[in-house]
Design a protein that fits this description.
With 109 residues, the protein is mainly alpha-helical. The protein has one domain. It has 6 helices and no strands. α2 packs across α3. The termini are far apart.
Length: 109
């Protein structure tokens, strides 16, 4: 995987964290458990493992250190709005509910 591809994967994981309110450990776990999240982030378990929570944390801190996370997120949101796509709180909350329900089912609770 090229360095550019790794950065893109890390950014997509960061988006998933924001949209689904996931901590670093929860993001790692969700990438193993939820196929649609792996597809979005471009994670292929046949080629490489999911980035671990420390890697996810380091990338998030790098974005925070350079004040990039919010700027990039706002740019993506503006781009999506130009295309007629809106990601609102209700959408995010619905996905969080479904995701948590899937994780609970997988845990056998």
């Amino acid at each position: 995987m090229t360095k550019r591809a790794k950065v893109l994967e890390a950014m997509e994981i960061h988006f998933l964290q924001q949209w689904h309110d996931l901590s670093d450990p929860a993001a790692e776990e969700a990438l193993y458990d939820v196929v649609s999240m792996r597809r979005f982030a471009g994670v292929d378990l046949g080629n490489a493992p999911v980035p671990d929570e420390t890697t996810i944390c380091k990338f998030r801190h790098l974005l925070e250190q350079h004040s990039l996370g919010e700027k990039i997120f706002d740019d993506v949101k503006a781009h999506l709005q130009e295309k007629g796509v809106s990601i609102g709180t209700c959408f995010a909350l619905a996905n969080i509910f479904v995701h948590k329900k899937q994780l609970t089912r997988l845990a056998g609770a």
